[in-house]
Specification:
Elements: E1 9-13, H1 20-27, E2 31-35, H2 51-64, H3 75-98, E3 101-104, H4 110-116, E4 123-127, E5 133-134, E6 156-157, E7 169-175, E8 179-189, E9 210-217, E10 231-236, H5 243-265, H6 277-296, H7 320-329, H8 332-336
Length: about 375
């Protein structure tokens, strides 16, 4: 740069490079202009972007002295900007963590999950049986009262409405599939824990507080002769629960479970005996690609419903299972072809060459976890 005939001027677009090059050129006595990309003039319809075109677009205004540079902040000012941006990013991460909700069906221990995840900013939502009993905190103990202090308040039985106090929060809404929905919540409840199992090594079982949520709907999506059951949920986590989010998230769990079931039972996600984690990752991405193709092909197949299924659906309402049925029973598969090789012969091959040895494959321990 110093060997070029003067005067020398440099310009570049503001971007990921920051203002470090501009300060370096200024320290070397070279004029440097940092240009905002939004201030560069571009002919209408010119959408081709290459390094050569960008260089010419920057050099021409610099040559005639019409480049509109921006102010280069000092190191202290840039550090202050980075600190403010880091603070905003941290606040956004905390908000996302605050809304991170883990939903479980009945069969999982909601109290153990809440106690185990107490140090994590995560919300836990678990379906509970209508036979459960909880307790609020006991009322303040009178002065000079004798005996052992109470650990539990009055009885709160889910199956006995006479034991319910007024709810701490309520929500009334309407849903296209469930009709009128009423959600009630009681905060600060805890169950009586016995000194066995997970709590056997403790001097006294802990008090694990949470929120009990009651969800009552007007009707189910499909007509049925069964009586409507009240849905009871246990919520624990930082802050207060969003009632509208909680009941909708639990219903959304059914869609996720059916997706996993379809991927395992129909697409063969867990069928092959894979040896390495890399093979498992590769096969998983292939299953995801196949599932996506079934979603995208809904408008290319006919709805071949079975006799016991509902009336024919529109293409936008076809499930991946019905789309797959259309792939198999229509001419679509013959039309698009297949990347698979022709079937191999059933006769035995030549086998392994004589004198070669193959070591046993690497065994990976199975991951076991209790419900």
């Amino acid at each position: 740069m110093a060997k070029l005939p003067g005067p020398v001027a440099v310009t570049y677009e503001a971007g990921p490079t920051g203002f470090g090059p501009a300060r370096a050129f200024a320290a070397a006595g070279v004029r440097c202009e940092v240009v905002a990309p939004s201030k560069l003039q571009r002919p209408p319809g010119d959408r081709v972007k290459t390094d050569r075109r960008d260089a010419r677009r920057l050099a021409r205004p610099l040559h005639i002295g019409e480049v509109g540079g921006i102010r280069v902040p000092s190191v202290v000012e840039e550090d202050a900007r980075d600190l403010v941006r880091a603070r905003e990013d941290t606040r956004a991460d905390l908000m996302r963590a605050r809304h991170r909700l883990f939903v479980f069906d009945a069969g999982y221990d909601p109290i153990a999950l809440g106690a185990g995840l107490a140090h994590i900013r995560a919300q836990v939502l678990v379906r509970i049986s209508s036979a459960r009993v909880f307790h609020p905190d006991p009322p303040p103990r009178p002065a000079h009262a004798g005996g052992r202090p109470r650990r539990h308040g009055d009885r709160f039985a889910l199956s006995e409405p006479t034991t319910w106090p007024d709810p701490d929060a309520e929500l009334a809404t309407h849903d296209a599939r469930y009709g009128d929905v009423r959600v009630q919540a009681w905060r600060g409840l805890h169950p009586k824990l016995a000194g066995r199992g997970r709590w056997a090594d403790m001097d006294a079982p802990p008090i694990v507080r949470g929120t009990v949520i009651r969800v009552q709907v007007e009707h189910l999506p499909k007509p049925t002769a069964r009586a409507l059951k009240t849905l009871w949920l246990w919520w624990s986590g930082p802050g207060q629960p969003d009632l509208d989010l909680c009941w909708r998230a639990y219903l959304r769990r059914f869609d996720i479970e059916h997706t996993y079931r379809f991927a395992k039972g129909t697409l063969g996600w867990t069928t092959p005996a894979l040896c390495t984690p890399e093979q498992a990752d590769r096969w998983t991405w292939l299953i995801v690609a196949a599932y996506t193709q079934l979603r995208l092909a809904r408008g290319l197949v006919e709805d071949l419903r079975l006799p016991w299924e509902e009336r024919p659906r529109r293409p936008a309402q076809l499930t991946p299972a019905r789309v797959r049925r259309g792939f198999r029973q229509t001419q679509l598969r013959a039309t698009i072809g297949t990347p698979a090789d022709p079937p191999k012969s059933n006769t035995a091959g030549p086998g392994r060459p004589k004198g070669t040895r193959r070591p046993p494959r690497t065994r990976h321990p199975a991951i076991k976890k209790a419900a």
